[in-house]
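Q&A FORM
Asked by: J.P.
Topic: structure of NAD kinase

PROVIDED:
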Amino acid sequence: MAQKLAFTASSAPSAVEACDALIRAYGQADEAEADVIVALGGDGFMLQTLHRTEGLPAPVYGMNRGTVGFLMNEFADDDLPERLAAAEEAVINPLRMTATTVTGEVRKALAINEVSLLRQGPQASKLRILVDGKPRMEELVCDGALVATPAGSTAYNYSAHGPILPIGADVLALTAMAAFRPRRWRGALLPKTARVTFEVLGGDKRPVMAEADARSVRNVVRVDVESAPEISHRLLFDPGHGLEERLIREQFA
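REPLIED BY: S.T.
REPLY: Here is the structure written out as tokens.
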């Protein structure tokens, strides 16, 4: 029996054109009833698709119609059923962010790649870091800090000189951005079960914002970050081009 495929595309003209061609070739199923959801675009669109379809049973197979396409497969408009039948699955868990603002408002969001704290103004942020409720760093002066999953370790985390994590590793990367004090602090590797708390020091003069996969909360005073193992995202990759291989290859680029 032929697989039921649901196609979705970013607004990029190349993605829309490819999506229309694939729908003509293979038909269009409802996402809730599909065997596979095929996303056409870049990594940003893949993250949007994973968040949007988080409660659906179908895995997501991405084809790159964007720029980097780390989470995507190469685009081709032929032999798609054969590629899907041979695809390898990777299962990833997101992070849960709980951010408290200066007004006492509590905002929650999920992040597949990372949760980051960033200074809002010209002055460096000052952060106090706790792990599982235990103070680990009384004051980190920096442009920001983030907690990244293995799947997100090659994104913002890597640009901030954080480590690339194997996709099966049960660890999270805690990375500072432009750390001023301690000047040489390069971050930490934490168990996946760890709960990381950032407390903003002097936020009235040094305001800080938090982001979970580009969803922002401004003027935070506290941000809690922990893995959400009860939520799983299933991604499909062509054989030999899965996340494990990409993470290794990226380290030798």
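FOLLOW-UP: The longest helix spans residues 13-26.
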